[in-house]
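stuck on this fold:
=====
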Amino acid sequence: MRIRLAATALAGLAGLGCLADRAVAQEILPRGVAGDAPVIILPVQSAVPDLDGTWVGGTGSAQRTIDLLNAEIEFAFGEEEGAAHWALPPAVEARLSRNPMIGVDPGRLAYRGLLTAPGPESQLYEPLHSQLRRVAALFGARLVVLPLSVSYRESRAVLQLALIDVRRSAVLWHGAVAGAAAEAASPFALTTLALRVADRLAPS
């Protein structure tokens, strides 16, 4: 079923613009952000319901929406050969669960300060910088993708996210990526969103 959804989604993405929320960011997310360097993709941090209370994907709750989108992101990046060595949300959660002394819950980071678009090359704040630094050290990574919030806008699922250089403690990019047009309650909305994120981020 997921393979059929993915094929349909790819066809629907052909004419889709890169950004859905132009008020958040005007830049296009860098394609192939890191080449052969390891990149960490953290779990989605939050979800916001539609105006009528519908959770994106028809899941019934914020946590189920987050869990479903994390699974879709794992699947989408699994289809990208250039991202085969990247650390995806399940791998990050598993590694941290085996290292409790790190003291970081990857699904509950201090992300809220990034919900408002920072300026170019903005420096990270504490405790987020320390949290990301400890996670990155486990994987020998420098770049971290932090999905901040998934919502439903203009008939599409939209993911606000930040690309962070942990060594420099700098936000390299902050913006929103949208999936294809779909009903808010349809799982297709999150499938196409995950595919779009993978298409924009994964090395070609």
The CA atoms of residues 20 and 154 lie 8 Å apart.
